[in-house]
From TrEMBL:
Key word Transferase present: no
Name the UniProt record assigns to this protein: Neuroligin-4, X-linked
UniProt keyword list: Membrane, Transmembrane, Transmembrane helix
SUPFAM superfamilies from the UniProt entry: S-adenosyl-L-methionine-dependent methyltransferases
Recorded superkingdom: Eukaryota
Spans traversing the lipid bilayer: 20-42
InterPro entries linked to this entry: DUF3419, SAM-dependent_MTases_sf
Pfam families the record matches: DUF3419 (PF11899), Methyltransf_23 (PF13489)
């Protein structure tokens, strides 16, 4: 039993969550430290309080016991208060703040990554840096880990109001020999740069905003010496209730932002003793005054879970690059779109030229924000425009509880290429899933790909893959997505990947960095909702002593070798006991295999038709269990018989081994694909929508799509409702004449095919899986269909899809 559990049982604290206990333990520790300081202060012997543990005693005395001195003249109240607090501890400030002031290096790393990206785009040269409240100069020296302070910056200004801390800073820079750093003892509200400097390129505030009484005027004053395209970096303590930000669309995400009521009360009271103010209004005002580039909320768990945040922002009237409304026009929805640049001037013109039905949600949110003098949503301030704004607090997005379902795709892109023959004129709409097939499609350089997923976490995964190709070499990309693990992932996330991620995606992966770094896990491919099935297989192999057999199966170099090994594995994976206990249950179908109840019913219906049984016995558990078991058998047996797992069928190799191999992996993980996807502009045509498929289709300019890949999503519809018919109608409106839909189904004859026929489409089954045969390397679906638009249901002028390079395929085969 752990300490927390013991406390719960001993003292009846069942209603108290473990963070509350952690805070209590931290308080007891600090109290003991204070008591030690009091006792040692009574000792008359000479002790060096600037070294070792005694430095913490000095810190405790200054922070918790030493009374604040009164201000005698009233002219320099804030400076006097700072000196009263810092004078006695200036010499030990850096030594005692390393564990307390978390996130400083992360903030600097994020800033350095942004600066390097701008330099690579020729948007920055010899920047000027102003560090407000920089104290001892620790931040400036720490930045040297990421950028050469002496060579990268033309000049650095450290501005603070405490002479004692600034004296430490002067000695620091004398020791380092840096001539381009100037230490300024001045009120931040009065600090200005000379006209010759042109203004600051970056401004930082590290745990200083919470100590400034008149913070509004200080934040306002920053814009007076910042360049138009300058970046502001802040790290500080905070407490906040999620209710405060529930109606804001410009915060860059609220992941982990909420602090519970006890934490808010305790930390605010605790820091008040030292005149450190944690009220939420300080962070709120930053986000109101500046556009959010990156925002993250973290906890210092070493000292009881102290909440702190990291904020990177820019002037809210500035957006990355000089992209005009004409350049971004039509890229989100193939329709007029509000650019993030010159938005006020272009607003009226954009509204006049855009028809209501083709305005994007991002456009609408921008109109609302600008009319209220608010910053634009964070998506507008990113270096890339492929992730489109969405409201991450809507129930349809939060229902996924911060988890993606699929860590890898379950659709065979080799077949997709054969059926679709994607070319440079294609505009594709596809479900994101894990994003693997989208990276595969991009090898053919289509004009546009609209990736759509209701689950924001699936899109975070796609964003991570896009960022990796944009910023990392092949070796690192392989370790992250080939092996699923990378011990330095967190460092790469901050220093290289962050400029290529949206704020929400960065928050997600900062919180889930252990997916790649944990020594106790198998890595990326044992995460997500589908991990249950993969872990179950691994557990069964261990339980029945089949690990060596599994290895031999995955190393077999011929189909004959593989077929000889398969019966040993099959006796466990396809045993009727396992089917009876787990596989046939609705819980396993949905939670582990991602099969919703409507799709499960389609499998059972097909089984009943094959057996000549009536539909009335569908609900019989024995019958439904038998249907699921036969479906699983028809999936796995042909795969083992006809596809070579060791060097071709990477889907099952991954499930059995937990990672890809150098000889068996998706096409996007080849060196050739890396060369293609890491080239400039490789993702210019990608747009990532976090929304329902119908929502996105409805905002498309009519007759612009040439291909739609909807996977098995229509199997999820209820046959008793009209959702399938509505989607067919929406697709007819959005697609060009001759445009094609590729769908897969768990049924040989999906019930909704008739809805396509009734709405201007000509369906053709191009693949059918019958017992003993493979439809593709995955073999998870019973049929595949190409559905071609042949008629308009909403007649008006219509462009026609160019199918000069397309090939009609009569049937699928391995």
């Amino acid at each position: 039993m752990g300490v927390v559990d013991a406390l719960h049982s001993q003292f009846g604290l069942q209603a108290w969550a473990s963070p509350h206990i952690t805070i209590g333990v931290a308080a007891i520790f600090v109290f003991a430290l204070v008591a030690s300081a009091a006792l040692l202060s009574l000792q008359k012997g000479k002790l060096d309080f600037n070294k070792g543990l005694l430095s913490y005693v000095k810190f405790a005395w200054s922070c918790f016991l030493k009374p604040h001195e009164r201000d005698s003249d009233g002219e320099s109240g804030q400076q006097h208060a700072l000196e009263s607090f810092y004078r006695a501890q200036a010499s030990v400030y850096d030594a005692t703040r390393k564990k307390l002031l978390c996130g400083r290096e992360d903030m600097l790393g994020l800033l350095a990554a942004q600066l390097k990206h701008r330099e690579s785009q020729h948007e920055l040269s010899k920047p000027v840096w102003v560090d407000i409240g920089g104290g001892t100069g620790y931040n400036i020296e720490a930045m040297n880990r990421f950028l050469s302070v002496e060579n990268f910056f033309s000049h650095v200004y450290l501005v603070d109001l405490s002479p004692s801390l600034l004296e430490v800073a002067r000695k620091r820079f004398e020791r380092l020999g840096w001539k381009n750093v100037t230490v300024v003892c001045q009120d931040a509200r009065q600090f200005r740069l000379s006209d010759a400097s042109g203004g600051a390129d970056i401004v930082t505030m590290s745990y200083s905003l919470s100590m400034i009484p008149d913070y509004y005027s200080v934040v306002d004053s920053l814009t007076k010496f910042m360049k138009t395209n300058a970046i502001l970096g802040v790290v500080d303590f905070y407490v906040q209730n999620i209710v405060d930000v529930s109606c804001r669309n410009y915060t860059g995400g609220v992941f982990n932002r909420h602090v519970n009521w006890l934490g808010r009360a305790f930390w605010r009271t605790w820091f008040d003793f030292d005149r450190v103010n944690l009220e939420a209004a300080r962070r709120d005002y930053l986000e109101y005054k500046f556009g959010t580039i990156v925002s993250a909320s973290e906890r210092n768990y070493l000292l009881g879970g102290i909440p702190y945040y990291i904020f990177l922002g820019c002037q809210k009237d500035f957006t990355s690059g000089s992209t005009s409304i004409e350049k971004l026009n039509a890229t989100f929805t193939e329709s007029p779109y509000l650019s993030a640049a010159n938005h006020r001037k272009a607003m009226d013109e954009a509204i006049e030229t855009a028809t209501p039905e083709i305005k994007s949600k991002a456009y609408e949110s921008a109109v609302v924000n600008l009319s209220s003098n608010l910053p634009l949503p964070s998506a507008f301030y990113q270096n890339h425009h492929y992730r489109i704004y969405y409201n991450d607090q809507l129930a349809k997005h939060t229902q996924f509880n911060g988890e993606y379902i699929y860590a890898f795709n379950w659709e065979d892109p080799r077949v997709d290429h054969r059926l679709l023959n994607i070319n440079t004129e294609d505009v594709i709409l596809t479900i994101t899933s894990a994003g693997d097939n989208i990276l595969d499609y991009l090898q053919n350089s289509p004009k546009r790909i609209h990736a759509v997923d209701m689950n924001p976490n699936q899109n975070h995964l796609l964003e991570l893959k896009v960022a990796a190709f944009s910023a990392l070499g092949y070796k690192d990309v392989w370790r992250i997505f080939g092996e699923g693990k990378h011990s330095e992932f967190r460092q790469l996330l901050i220093t290289k990947l962050s400029p290529h991620l949206s704020s929400q995606a960065f928050q997600f992966w900062l919180e889930h960095a252990q997916v790649f770094t944990s020594k106790s896990s198998k890595g990326l491919y044992e995460t997500g909702g589908s991990r249950v099935a993969i872990k179950l297989v691994r557990y069964l192999f261990t339980l029945f002593g089949l690990r060596s057999s599994n290895t031999k199966l995955c190393e077999a170099q011929t189909l004959n070798e593989q077929r000889e090994m398969w019966p040993t594995i099959r006796r466990v994976l396809l045993s009727r006991v396992l089917n009876w206990a787990i596989v046939k249950t609705e819980w396993f179908a949905w939670k582990a295999a991602g099969v919703p109840p409507p799709q499960r019913n389609m499998i059972i219906d097909d089984f009943l038709k094959r057996k000549g049984l009536s539909g009335g016995i569908k609900k019989n558990q024995d019958v439904s269990g038998q249907a699921i078991w036969e479906y699983v058998v028809d999936t796995f047996d042909p795969v083992a018989k006809d596809t070579l797992i060791s060097n071709d069928n990477y889907f099952y190799y991954l499930c059995l081994q937990g990672k890809f191999s150098r000889s068996c992996h998706p096409a996007y993980l080849t060196p050739k694909a890396h060369d293609k996807l890491s080239s400039p502009g490789a993702f210019d045509g990608l747009r990532i929508h976090t929304d329902g498929l119908n929502e996105v289709i409805a905002r498309m300019t009519p007759r612009t799509l040439t291909i739609a890949v909807v996977m098995d999503s229509m199997d999820w519809f209820n046959p008793d409702e009209d959702a399938a018919a509505k989607q067919a109608q929406a697709l007819n409106r959005a697609m060009k004449m001759g445009g094609r839909i590729l769908l897969r189904s768990a049924s040989i004859e999906p019930w909704y095919i008739k809805d396509f026929e009734a709405n201007g489409f000509s369906p053709r089954r191009v693949g059918a899986r019958f017992p003993g045969s493979c439809i593709d390397r995955v073999n998870m679906y019973a049929s595949a269909w190409i559905i071609t638009k042949t008629a308009e249901i909403d007649p008006s002028p219509r462009p026609k899809a160019n199918r000069a390079n397309s090939v009609d395929v009569e049937a699928l085969s391995i």
